[in-house]
């Protein structure tokens, strides 16, 4: 997400896959990433690093 926001990679070249169990099935969720590095959805309990990355994502862009 940070590299997408910084322009190092395109949003379409990055993907996150979240796997979780619902009853006896495994469900895969793949949120999209926008050009600011934001995910279209944020599954509950996903990626504890979120708060730390948020600081980097909210910081002004370096020129």
Automatic annotation (TrEMBL):
Pfam families: DUF3696. It comes from the Bacteria. Residues 9-57 form the DUF3696 domain. InterPro entries: DUF3696. This is DUF3696 domain-containing protein.
